[in-house]
Design goal:
By secondary structure, this protein is an alpha/beta fold. The protein is built from 27 helices and 17 strands. The longest helix is centred in the middle third of the chain and has 17 residues.
Length: about 675
């Protein structure tokens, strides 16, 4: 066998062709199924971590209590109160504490600890219970379940300390997260939640009735009008004179009225001490800082003066309350404006008062005295306006020194006794007249005393028929104060017993027996005097609290007779007026303007005035004092001048009465002066 060798010298060997296997053919035809590569399962992307928050309602209280707050206004202004707080749904005790300390900065200074409370459903003041705690304290899960997924409020209650309730400035850290708005009156940026309260203190709400708060009359900044104080002789700007006069030796009017003609030397000496120490009150107030010297004053009159002057001086830089009264209107329209003014809620009555009489050019302190005199006269004698009684409206009924609130339900529903409390407190704070002659039993209950311990007299019963029936249970020899002890001597007739039993049964009381006479008499008196006007007394007390004189009544019970005087001590008598008059000078004057009068003429006119004061009735004397100083209360240093004029006139701001010198007889003087003082309510006529 030979082997062929090519030209290249290499041998060619034929090899058999390699066939594809079935596996290879399947891989070629179906590569996705029969691939040799390892198939790895793609993992799904992990979901992002979600942070969940719980929105909870917290409310920080000022002290340890088991009751919901009745009013959250004060809490909010002090940086406490209700807040919406976001907390992680996985938060533990440490995280919850951190968030609350950041939301309430005042919690950082609370070292006595705090607990979280919850309240049952409903509204108003409810009882709270502590939230349950785990072994590690509070957790977000506990707060979520206890607050019904954030629908109920969680209260933060201090355990051992009280948090300061002083209102915070509007730029405090507690208010940094609150939306703010600018007050259009003062331009200050105020948190939106506090803006309504700021507006009320910044300016009074504009009333449609006319008794509104308006802008003060603009004064030229480059013109300064100076006035001389008639008491100390120093000069002050005209706009500052009212504030200076309130603290420059002007004694409290009730101090003077307590010195009547029958007063003892001891009471007179006490009054003199009070008057002499009033000029030192401003020094006492400035040294005490918080006006606490009234608590240490030994004389009640001086304590009252120091208290009211302290409040007035604290508020003298605040915007004044302003009242306008049109003396050309009907009496009913004027009364409606007075009522509307004193029914404005949430008013700081210690702020300065600016009064304006429309239809009259008079200004100054005399106008303010005229306003308070008018207000207290309406409160004492009643309003002409009919409030559903068919006649004029009287708030206090009964006889002198035994006045009790009217039982008319219309007056209670109209909040007129709330208004009466504000009126009395407002007049007291500005040294004005007060309501005299309230029943001692009413005053006892008004100041928080129990009706069972009140001393009720038969004179306190307003209804004459009821009084006559109760009179049957008293003695015959001592008609009004000592009860019968001799049953045989004081046995009632059948008709008398029937009248007493009918009255007792009408008030759900047992009938008269031989053993319950004394008890039944006291029960009937209590029902007749105190049970009927209970709602009126409650409203009256609230009005006194709103006028800020309640702390004085609580701390100094001996001042109660000063604020609620008896009619006998508050009356304006001739001796009190004469003791406070500065008579014309006895020096000879002959001025070029013709106003000078010889001593004889001055003495004659002064004699006419003295005779007038000593002989006229009580009402005429009050009219004279009101014409002289602006209200019915005599004041120190009431001056008399004899001038060239056609009719008597007065400068109420400076307490000067100017009398013409042309009178030749007392009858002529009497008729002219009586006609002038009878028109006090028609205006002043002078600036």
């Amino acid at each position: 066998m030979g082997i062929q060798i090519g030209a290249s010298g290499s041998s060619e060997v034929s090899q058999p062709a390699r066939t594809h296997t079935v596996q290879q053919e399947m891989q070629r035809s179906f590569p996705a199924i029969y691939s040799n590569r390892m198939r790895t399962k793609r993992k799904a992307p992990e979901p992002p971590t979600v942070i969940k928050f719980l929105e909870l309602q917290f409310c920080l209280l000022e002290q340890h209590t088991d009751r919901c707050p009745k009013d959250e206004t004060l809490l909010l202004r002090a940086g406490l109160g209700r807040r919406s707080v976001n907390i992680l749904d996985t938060a533990d005790h440490t995280e919850i504490t951190r968030v609350l300390l950041e939301e309430y900065p005042k919690l950082q200074n609370l070292h006595g600890g705090w607990l979280l409370h919850k309240a049952a459903g409903g509204s108003g003041q409810r009882k709270t219970t502590p939230l349950p705690q785990g072994s590690q304290g509070y957790t977000a899960k506990i707060l979520k379940s206890s607050s019904n997924n954030g629908k109920n409020i969680i209260y933060i209650v201090p355990l051992q300390e009280e948090i300061d309730m002083t209102p915070l400035p509007y730029d405090a850290p507690e208010f940094k997260n609150m939306p703010k708005n600018v007050c259009m009156t003062c331009g200050q940026s105020v948190p939106l939640q506090l803006l309504p309260f700021h507006i009320e203190s910044c300016q009074q709400v504009n009333q449609d009735s006319g008794s509104v708060v308006e802008d003060e009359p603009r004064r030229e900044p480059d013109v300064i009008c100076m006035d001389t104080c008639p008491i100390c002789g120093e000069q002050f700007a005209a706009e500052m004179m009212p504030y200076h006069a309130s603290s420059c030796g002007e004694s409290f009017p009730q101090i003077i009225t307590t010195m009547n003609s029958n007063a003892t030397e001891e009471s007179a000496s006490v009054s003199v001490v009070c008057e002499s120490t009033v000029t030192e009150s401003s020094t006492d107030l400035s040294s005490s800082g918080t006006s606490e010297s009234w608590k240490r004053a030994e004389v009640p009159q001086r304590a009252a003066v120091l208290y009211r002057m302290g409040l007035v001086q604290e508020k003298e830089t605040e915007p004044p309350l302003k009242f306008r009264l049109d003396i050309r209107e009907d009496v009913e329209d004027q009364e409606a404006k007075i009522i509307s003014f004193y029914k404005i809620p949430k008013v700081d009555w210690a702020r300065p008062l600016y009064c304006k009489l429309q239809g009259d050019v008079a200004t100054g302190e005399g106008v303010k005295r005229h306003f308070f005199s008018l207000v207290m006269h309406k409160l004492q004698s009643g309003f002409i306006t009919d409030f559903g009684n068919g006649t004029s409206t009287v708030l206090f009924e009964g006889q002198v020194d035994h006045l009790v609130p009217s039982t008319s339900q219309v007056l209670v529903q109209s909040d007129l006794f709330l208004m009466a409390g504000r009126m009395i407190g407002h007049s007291f704070l500005h040294g004005g007249p007060l309501v005299a002659g309230l029943s001692p039993a009413i005053i006892h209950v008004l100041l928080g005393g129990s009706p069972q311990t009140a001393v009720i007299l038969l004179e306190d019963v307003v209804d004459i028929d009821i009084r006559e029936t109760l009179q049957l249970l008293y003695t015959d020899n001592d008609s009004k104060r000592e009860k019968l002890n001799d049953e045989k001597k004081n046995e009632l007739s059948e008709d008398q017993r029937r009248a007493v039993n009918q009255l007792a049964l009408s008030w759900d009381l047992p009938v008269l027996t031989a053993t319950n006479r004394t008890w039944l008499l006291h029960s009937l008196l209590q029902h007749a005097v105190l049970t009927g006007p209970s709602r009126q007394i409650k409203q009256f007390r609230q009005g006194l609290k709103e006028s800020m004189i309640w702390p004085l009544l609580e701390a100094r019970p001996d001042v109660v007779p000063v604020i609620f005087p008896r009619h006998s001590t508050a009356e304006c008598n001739a001796q009190v007026v004469l003791d406070n008059i500065i008579w014309p000078s006895e020096e000879e004057t002959d001025n070029d303007d013709g106003d000078g009068f010889p001593v004889a003429v001055k003495c004659k006119i002064a004699g006419y005035l003295r005779q007038f004061v000593e002989t006229v009735t009580q009402d005429k004397l009050k009219q004279l004092v009101k014409f002289w100083v602006g209200w019915e209360l005599p004041m120190k240093d009431m001056q008399v001048e004899v001038v060239q004029a056609a009719h008597p006139s007065s400068s109420t701001c400076f307490q000067i009465l100017r009398l013409p010198g042309y009178y030749t007889s007392y009858n002529e003087f009497y008729d002219n002066l009586k006609g002038c003082i009878a028109h006090n309510d028609s205006g002043f006529g002078l600036i």
